[in-house]
Amino acid sequence: MTSSDFGAVYVSDKCGSVIYSHVCQALFLKGAPVIGLLESWCIRNSKSIHGIKPTLAVVYFNTGVDADEYLRIKAEVAAKAGIDFIPYELAPNASTDGVLHLISTLNKCSQTHGILVQRPLPIQISEKDVMGSISRRKHVEERLQGQPSNIAVDGVVRLLASYRKADMLDLSIVLLGGTNIITPGFKAELKKRYPRIEMFKTPEEAKLVNRDGVIVMTELNKGGIIQPEMLGPGVESEGI
Asked: Which residues form the Tetrahydrofolate dehydrogenase/cyclohydrolase catalytic domain (predicted)?
């Protein structure tokens, strides 16, 4: 099961004596309906309060095409949500201290209401230090309706619930890898909500074949993770 931002494959599930077999089905879960509802909510709730319009600061690294695409997407999302968008460019060879200085400035800025940092960060920058330095009130990835939470986990739950598949998250969850969506915050929030979680760096470590009652979540950008024998005889997989 997949959306444009998130990949998840449902293998099978077992609930007591009742067994639900899904091995001969492959479902493509589109996130557009859920996104539409979220955009509508944002538009209704993002109107200026006391003359102040919400403003999102986006910190990015000038790495070329990737950075351009990242900014384009964030600008479109901000426009649809009815909020202002201000990009802050840093060089690819920026230091951790340099990024921390910018984050500190944005934390103190009363005109900045949310902060987003492009990930994955350049290898020389400490992601833990940078992400941990963002004000909890302005950390848009880790804030939901005014409360600490991870928005990517919320997105997964909303997507599955919209297809009446939320009970899948009661299975054993296997996380493979992680970059800009399956982040440490994502993993921590998911584990807090659903304790039956295993984390691996590679599919080989996870030993996924012939495992029942497992949902696989991955951002590994390579084929071969999901194999035909994991889905059953009624499903043909190509380049998954």
From this structure: 50-141
